[in-house]
Write a structure and sequence with these properties.
By secondary structure, this protein is α/β, with parallel strands linked by helices. It contains 24 helices and 30 strands. The protein folds into four domains: 285 residues, Succinyl-CoA synthetase domains (Rossmann fold); 160 residues, Succinyl-CoA synthetase domains (Rossmann fold, 3-Layer(aba) Sandwich); 113 residues, ATP-grasp fold, A domain (Dna Ligase, domain 1, 2-Layer Sandwich), CATH 3.30.1490.20; 114 residues, D-amino Acid Aminotransferase, Chain A, domain 1 (2-Layer Sandwich). Helix 10 crosses helix 16 and helix 14 packs parallel to helix 15.
């Protein structure tokens, strides 16, 4: 639980100031005002007294126990203060001071020195360049934030201190409470993984949310988050999704942003729910913190307005949720209680003149229906609407059910007190139906994550030595790229089927090989320097005679020399023609944060235009490989349409698993493309036609 931060006995503020305009004053005042009932000390060489607290010239001058030090002094003096904290025996330190990695190389070196000091003394260090922590459990406000949150069950970590202060202000106005609130800063020592582990064990925290600009250790994050999300939901927003945003992230905290595709894959594989905006982050968090677990996808809508009911219906379909089919008993009961003009079907339209009792009839009937898993209650303020009374009805009814009930009280001024009443009952409110549906969809994604079986991994018998020998030879020749002519060795060593193939150094050699393979054949320029052969017209298919082979051999060699004059030409690769099938892409790119990112999608020459692909982080589980083959938009084409036989998706999944094992065994592979992998008819396998590979330098 990181007791130095979340259960400290004695807190010292180093840099405490009597000047109300200084951060050192604000931090000390916050600690004192937060209700922290244990000893608090001020440290400043000037001595004296600040806010009734005696000031010590140095932390080592304090005779009593100090578990946590908060450092608020200029960057050049932080290392000396940190050393003193270690000598004092502090277990934890919060470095609020800025001016480290985020300002350049010298700052990065200074920050690393802080880490070395902290590790030498066994201290947990938060920051530098952070806002601090706010904890409603102890309680303590060891930060310079101007607002202290209400108690709650949501723990929040953020890399942006400024965003943290804005969120605290918003949360106060919206009556959202927190258990723990941490500003990560530069994450020189403690990072998101440490807090995931701490809050996983925290009985005061039910939901973990995070604003992240980068992740320090991608594979470790996936491992820890996968364990945590089995017990409580984790919701994250990751900034820096554009190239400009990634540059801003780097300059903000010095974090390497990594690829967005990798973050999407990592979050999915770890069970982390990714929010697209800060609004989504808190919309989802409110639903998780206040509502019971969703058990299915069937949703009832109770509304006093037709338009918003239709909006909710459309949003449910877009979110892969369903408008519940009410039972005959429910419909008949509603017809008996509602006016004739009302709709007893779903959405249940109680009409614009509905009073609170009519809402109660609709809501209770919907919740009693076994076909309903959750209910949205939509209210638009009209002349007869009893906003507050209806809010009480919704709140009391929601407390008596084990199904999620979400409010959609639309508007602002006229429904303000009703929204506060809902909050008192633990019913979250969303001002538009679409936002409520997105929150329900998040509950459903988490339900499906919890329902997933434990991952199963396959391990194949392979020939690692054969691949290692090839890589050693390639490096010995001063190369890092492996083209199609050599790739079959790698694929065959890992059990991936390839066409019969051989390199011909002369035209007559080409004729001999073609006759051994059998016509028709495919011919490709063979060169370690020409990886995208089709770009220069370096591929010919359907060659059916010796005469054609001779002519094509010369044509391909001439094209290679003309378009890439400095290329080393080995000759021409002779390859058997593979039966017609569906062309897919299997690729790998090594992400700096998460390792090997595997891609699967529609293949061929248009792959970069169509971009019909899906991603996962290696190593792949059996289930993840299966999911990849069904997620792309063209999945229906692979299953067979208009009388076409289905492609061998089993072979595609096995190919993904074998390539996953290859890049796991050889982490020096930074890029790999098999395009196309031809999927034959179901039961007939898959054949890798063309491959390129790049090794790390």
């Amino acid at each position: 639980m990181i007791p130095a931060l979340f259960d400290p006995h004695g807190v010292a503020v180093i840099g405490a100031s009597a000047d109300p305009t200084k951060l050192g004053h604000a931090v000390l005042k916050n600690v004192l005002d937060s209700g922290y009932g244990r000893p608090v000390y001020a440290v400043n060489p000037k001595g004296g007294e600040i806010l009734g607290v005696p000031v010590f010239p140095d932390i080592t001058a304090i005779s009593d126990r100090v578990d946590l030090a908060v450092i608020v002094i200029p960057a050049p003096f932080v290392a000396q203060a940190l050393e003193a904290c270690g000598e004092k025996g502090c277990r934890g330190v919060i470095v609020i001071s800025a001016g480290f990695r985020e300002v350049g190389l010298e700052g990065k070196r200074a920050e690393q020195h802080l880490v070395e000091i902290a590790h030498r003394y066994g201290m947990d260090m938060l920051g530098p360049n952070c806002l601090g922590i706010l904890d409603t459990v102890i309680p303590i406000n060891a930060s310079f934030a101007g607002t202290f949150p209400e108690p709650g069950t949501i723990a929040f970590m953020t890399q942006s201190g400024a965003l943290a202060t804005a969120i605290l202000d918003w949360a106060k106005a919206n009556r959202m409470g927190f258990s723990r609130f941490v500003s990560l800063g530069n994450k020189a020592d403690l990072d998101e993984i440490d807090f995931l582990q701490a809050w996983d064990e925290d009985e005061h925290t039910d939901v973990i949310i995070a604003y992240l600009e980068g992740i320090v250790d991608g594979p470790r994050f996936i491992q820890v988050a996968r364990e945590t999300t089995r017990r409580k939901p984790v919701i994250a927003i990751k900034s820096g999704t554009t190239n400009s945003g990634q540059r801003a992230v780097s300059s903000h905290t010095g974090t390497l942003a990594g690829s967005e595709r990798a973050y999407d894959a990592a979050f999915r594989q770890a069970g982390v729910l990714r929010a697209a905006s800060v609004q989504d982050l808190f919309d989802f968090a409110q639903a998780f913190a206040t509502q019971p677990r969703l058990r299915g996808v069937n949703v009832a809508v109770v509304t006093n307005a037709g338009g918003p009911g239709i909006m909710a219906t459309d949003a449910l379909e877009r979110a892969d949720l369903r408008l519940a089919q009410l039972s005959t008993e429910t419909i008949e009961g509603l017809r008996a209680q509602l006016p004739a003009a009302a709709s007893a079907l779903n959405p249940i339209d109680v009409l614009g003149d509905a009073l609170a009792d009519r809402y109660q009839s609709g809501l209770e009937a919907a919740l009693a229906d076994p076909n309903v898993d959750a209910v949205l209650v939509i209210l638009t303020p009209q002349v007869y609407t009893q906003v507050d009374a209806t809010a009480h009805v919704v709140g009391r009814t929601a407390q008596q059910t084990d199904k999620p009930v979400l409010g959609v009280f639309m508007g602002s001024y006229d429904i303000a007190t009703g929204v506060h009443i809902l909050a008192e009952y633990g019913v979250p409110n969303y001002i538009f139906p679409e936002r409520a549906v997105e929150a329900l969809a998040a509950l459903d994604r988490y339900r499906r994550w919890l329902d997933r079986p434990e991952p199963v991994y396959r391990h194949f018998e392979v020939d690692q030595a054969r691949v290692r020998a090839l890589f050693d030879r390639v490096r010995a020749e001063g190369r890092l790229q492996v083209g199609d002519a050599e790739a079959s060795t790698i694929l065959q060593a890992y059990g991936v089927q390839t066409p019969q193939s051989e390199i011909a150094s002369t035209a007559e050699d080409a004729v001999r090989i073609a006759e051994q393979i059998g016509y028709p054949v495919v011919m490709k320029i063979a060169s370690p320097d020409i990886l995208h052969k089709s770009d220069i017209g370096g591929v010919a298919v359907g060659i059916e005679s010796a005469e054609e082979v001779r002519a094509t051999f010369q044509t391909l060699v001439n094209r290679g020399r003309r378009f890439v004059p400095d290329a080393e030409i080995w000759g021409v690769q002779m390859q058997e023609m593979v039966p017609k099938g569906r062309e897919v892409l299997v690729g790998v790119n090594r992400d700096p944060q998460f390792g090997h990112l595997i891609v699967f999608g529609l293949g061929g020459i248009y792959v970069e235009i169509l971009k019909d692909v899906t991603f996962r982080i290696a190593p792949l589980s059996v289930q993840e490989a299966a999911e990849m083959t069904t997620e792309i938009r063209a999945a229906a084409l692979l299953r067979g349409v208009r009388g076409e036989p289905p492609a061998d998706l089993g072979a595609a999944r096995e190919g993904l698993l074998r390539i996953s094992q290859l890049v796991t065994d050889f982490p020096e592979i930074v890029e790999l493309d098999i395009n196309p992998l031809v999927l034959l008819e179901e039961g007939k396998g898959a054949v890798a036609i063309d491959m390129r590979l790049v090794l790390a330098g």
